[in-house]
Design brief:
Blueprint (H helix, E strand, L loop, with lengths): L1 E5 L6 H10 L3 E5 L3 H8 L10 H8 L4 E4 L10 E4 L15 H9 L8 E4 L7 H11 L5 E4 L9 H7 L2 E5 L2 H11 L6 E4 L1 H31 L4 H9 L31 E5 L22 H13 L3 E6 L13 E7 L8 H11 L1 H5 L4 E7 L1 H6 L15 H6 L1
Parallel strand pairs: 1-2, 1-4, 2-3, 4-5, 5-6, 7-8, 9-10, 11-12
Antiparallel strand pairs: 6-7, 10-11
Helix pairs in contact: 1-3, 4-5
């Protein structure tokens, strides 16, 4: 059994490829990023994914190989397409992005293959791809089997989570089940439209839970009490409240370019999440490019410089007497092996140097909690609540 993955050196494609290769499938990763291809072929991960480096070292050059040459797709029985979730410049879903990506490599596809769509997509995209292949005269089975993994847990969840399998025709369904049964014991069969909506509904439900938790966090801060203490009390031996998540942008952030220095791993918090509005501007109007928030700048700088295993960026500006929307007060929790052997003063000086531009601008105040992984575990993975604003809190101003 041979499988090719288009977009195979990214955060979704590469763990999947490593898992297939680890189970003995001849696996080809096709990617346009030459630097990422070179890293993978040298058994080096282009990003942090716990547990993947050991498996990559075992399969690279044997059952797994990466290339930029799309013509090699014709040699594989299965072709899995993994591209970023497609949206247009106004953050509306772009249903043509996946068909266009497939049409770009269609000359390298052949009759008899199974084409597996893996990306989150707009309902109806699978049908568009089926019609595209028919128009091109290609007799290729099509399946939609959405990825379900969380970044940082891929090498566990690919083997343990049930895989949604969807296809219009029975042969395509059977072939897709056969492919993913090499990884997981449980597959769930749906129609393509059901699977497309199942993936979107899952994402929506997760984001709603995170949004509610963030709102409750901000309400707790307005009342100058510790949200985590409240959340812990709510869930202790009380199952109906035990699933309230912690505050933070737990679903991750926009992907960093592949080949860049390692990005943050299993846990990252950025509060409040930056809002985006998916809409078309009025006819003739210009929608400006979204500004990069100070929190995002801080996040990118610290990830690049410190490769943290945990990074919490808590915007506590709303607790202070500053205008709405000001990014002036941040609480930073940074857990990194880069702090080994450094005292507290040296750590803080390093952070101040890294964030000199941000601290010279709107972010004029910050609380720092810097720990090594061992220190973080020893203190129970928690930090104290921030003290009240000495100049009077926003809540006090409202009461006054």
């Amino acid at each position: 059994m041979s499988v090719a993955i288009v977009g195979g050196c990214g955060h979704v494609g590469l763990p999947l490829g490593i898992a297939f290769a680890d189970r003995g499938l001849e696996t080809l990763l096709v990617d346009i990023d030459q630097s990422a291809v070179d890293l993978v072929n040298s058994a080096t991960l282009p990003f942090l994914e716990p547990g993947a480096d050991e498996k990559l070292a075992k399969v690279a050059g044997t059952t797994l190989r990466a290339t930029t040459d799309a013509s090699e797709l014709s040699e594989c029985e299965y072709v899995v397409v993994v591209i970023g979730t497609p949206v247009d410049e106004h953050f509306n879903p772009d249903p043509q992005a996946i068909p266009q990506a497939i049409e770009a490599v269609a000359e390298h596809l052949r009759d008899g293959q199974l084409l597996v769509l893996r990306s989150t997509c707009y309902p109806g995209v699978t049908a568009l791809v089926e019609r595209l292949l028919a128009r091109l005269g290609l007799e290729i089975d099509v399946a939609f089997c959405p990825e379900r993994i969380a970044e940082g847990k891929a090498m566990t969840e690919l083997y343990t989570l049930p895989q949604l399998i969807s296809a219009r025709e029975t042969p395509a369904m059977e072939r897709a089940v056969c492919l993913f049964s090499t990884l997981t014991e449980t597959t769930i069969e749906l129609t393509p439209e059901e699977a497309e909506l199942a993936k979107l509904f899952t994402n929506t439900w997760r984001y709603l839970r995170f949004a509610i938790a963030n709102q409750l966090y901000m309400i707790a801060n307005d009342h100058e009490v510790d949200f985590e203490k409240i959340r812990s009390a709510m869930g202790e031996d009380y199952p109906r409240a035990a699933d309230l998540p912690g505050a933070g942008l737990a679903a991750g952030r926009a992907a960093r370019p592949r080949g860049a220095r390692r990005r943050v791993g299993p846990r990252q918090v950025l509060i409040p999440p930056r809002p985006y509005t998916a809409r078309h501007p009025p006819s003739g109007a210009h929608l400006p490019e979204p500004a990069v928030s100070v929190a995002t700048e801080i996040n990118d700088i610290l990830v690049d410089a410190l490769a943290p295993v945990r990074l919490d960026i808590l915007d506590e500006s709303h607790r202070h007497n500053v205008p709405d929307g000001a990014e002036s007060h941040f609480k930073l929790v940074i857990v990194s092996g880069e702090f080994e052997g450094q005292g507290l003063v040296a750590r803080h000086r390093r952070i101040n140097r890294l964030l000199a531009d941000q601290l010279a601008g709107p972010a004029h105040a910050r609380g720092l909690h810097t720990h090594t992984p061992g220190e973080w575990e020893a203190r129970g993975e928690s930090v104290p609540a921030s003290p009240p604003c000495r100049g009077g809190s926003a809540a006090e101003s409202a009461r006054g």
